[in-house]
Amino acid sequence: MSVAAAPARAASRSTSRSGTMTGFWISVRFILRRNWLRLVIWAAVLAVMIPVVYDSQQQAFPTQAARNAYAQVANTPAVAAMTGLPYAAGSLGGILVIKIWMTLAVALGFASIFLVTRNGRADEESGRTELLRSSAMGRHAYSMANYAVVGGLSVVSGALISLLCLAETLPTAGSLVMGASIAGTGLAFVGIAVICGQLSSTSRGANSLAVAILAVFYFIRAAADLQANGDNVNVISWFSPIGWAQNMRPFGQNTWWPLLALLGLAVAGCALALRIETRRDLGMGILPERRGKARASEFLMHPVGLVLRLQRAPLIGWMVGAVVAGLFFGTVAKAMTTVLEPSNAFAKAFVGESSNMLDGILGVFVLFTAMLAGAFAVQCITGARTEEAEGRLESQLAGALSRSTWLWANVLVSAVGSALMLLLGGYLTGVSSNGAATGSQLAGAAFAYWPAVLLMMGVPLFLQGFAPRLSASLGWAVYGISVVVAMFGGLFSLSESVIAATPYGAVPRLMTENFTALPILVLSAIALALGVLGFWRFSNRDIIPE
Fold first, then answer.
1. Which residues pair with 232 in a beta bridge?
2. Burial (CB count <10 Å: 0-12, 13-18, 19+), residue 9
3. 3-class secondary structure, 232
C-alpha cells in the first residue's frame, strides 16, 4: 500500500465505522448558516401574500352578490388554465384559492428546486462536498441535511399560511388544507429536485431539468383543468403532483388523502437519490455529459452570443410567460368589469381613478406585464453575478475579453429581452381583448414601463460593482418592494407621492392617466447613473468568488 493511499483508506475505514449519517446535525447547522436569509425571505414572502390578497378581496367583493358575480367570471377556460378549477369561487376562501394558491404552490416548488441544487449539486460541483467528506462525515449526512432543511422550508411555509388563514377567520378545515397542500407541493419538488441533482453533473443542468419537469407538470394540470367537466376533475390531473395538491381543494371538499401521494413522492425521491449517491462517483452525474464541438461557433465566440446561450432557458421561459399572461389578461378584461364596481374602494385603489373601469383594468394588466419583464431583467443581471461567484468569469477574462465588454453583453441581453417581453405581452393583451383595445395601443402602454424595468436592472448592476455578494438578494428585495407598493400601495393607505416614488408607481398608466414624460426621463436618468457607477466599480475591483 502506498504512503499516499494510506490516509484515504484510513479515512474510509473511519467513515465506515462511524456510519453514513455521522455529522448530520453539524451539516444542518452549516446549511442553515449559509441559507438562513434565503429561507426567511422565501417563507415570509409566501406567507404574507395571504393577508394581503385576502384583505384586498374582502374590499373587492364585500357582498355575496359580488362573490357570485366573480364566480361567473372565474368559470372560464382562461382562469382554469392559469389558476385551476374554480370549485368554490362563490366564497371568500374559494376566491383566495383562485387568486393565490397556484402562485404560492409553484413558487414554493421553484424555491425547493433552487435550494436543493444550491446545497447539493452546486456544492459538489465546486468541491465543497468533497472537502466536507474528507473528515469523518458520513456519505449521506450532508445530502440528508440538505433534504431536511429545504423540506423544513415547505413545512414552515405551509404552517405559516395555515396560521394566517386562521387569523383571517377563515374556516379551520380549509385553512389547514390550504397550508398542507402548498407545503406538499414544495415537498414533492424536493423529491424531484434531488433526483435531478443525481442525474446531472452540473448545477445549471440540475436546475434546468427540474424546472422543465415543473413546467411539464404545470401544463399537464392546465390541460386537465381545461378538459374538466364542471367541478369534476379530469383524470389527466392525477399525472401531475401540482394536480394532486390542487385536488385537496381547500375551502371546498378539504380532501386530505392526496397529501399522502405528495409525501410519498418526496420520500421516494430522496430514497432513490441516496441510493444513486451510494453507487456513483463524487462529482459525476448519471446522465453522461454531452460532448461539445471541438471549436466554438462564431456565435458563441461573441460575448453576446455566449450570454444568449447561457440565458437561453430563462429567456424562453419568460417569453412564454409573457405570451400566456398577455392572452389571459386580454381574455378576462371585459369580464372583470362586471365584477368591480367603480365606486368600490378596492377598485379605486387597484385600477386608479379612471371613470372607465375597462381602461383601468387594462392599465393594471399592462403593469403586470411590466413586472414580468422586470423579473426577467433582474434574473438576467444576477445571473452575471453567478458566473463570477462560481469561478467561471475568470476563465472568460483570461483572454482578450474585457470586463466591461463581458458585463455589457449581459446588460444588452437583459435590456433587449425585457423590451421584447413588454411589446409582446402588451400586444397580445390588446389583440385578445375582444375590441377593448388594439394591440399597438397596449404595446405602447407596456413599453412606457421600459425605463422602470431598466431601473430594476440598474440596482443589481450597481450592486454588482459595489456589493457583489449582496447583489442578488438586495436586487430582488428592491424589485419586490417596488411591486408590492405599486400594486397594493393604495390598499395600505400609502400616499400617492409614496407610490409614485417607486419605479413602477412613477410611470403613468397610459390607459387611465395623462401621459407625462418627466417620470420617464427621471427613471431613465437614475437607471443610467446606477449602470455607469456599476460598470466603473466592476472594472476596477477584484473578482470576488462566493
1. 229
2. exposed
3. strand
Nine cell digits for residue 222: 392546465
Cα Rg for the chain, rounded, in angstroms?
Answer: 25
pLDDT at 77: 67
Pairwise CA distance, residues 525 & 142, whole Å: 48
pTM of the model: 0.76
**Which position has the grid cell 502506498?**
2
Look at residue 231 and give its three-state secondary structure.
Answer: coil
Q: pLDDT tens digits for 272-281?
A: 999 988 888 7
Torsion of CA 314, 316, 322, 327, to 10 degrees: -150
pLDDT in tens, 474-510: 888 888 888 888 877 766 667 778 888 889 888 887 6
Least confident of 244-248, 461-465, 514-518: 514-518
3 state SS of 229? strand
Say if residue 3's pLDDT is above 60.
no
The count of residues in the chain is 546
Please enumerate in sequence order all residues whose Cβ is within 8 A of that of 338, keeping only pairs 6 or more positions apart, or say none.
Answer: 69, 72, 73
CA atoms of 456 and 451, how far apart (whole Å): 9
Residues 277, 195: Cα–Cα separation, whole Å: 10
Residue 336 in grid coordinates: 372583470
The three grid cell numbers given for residue 224, joined into one nine-digit string: 386537465
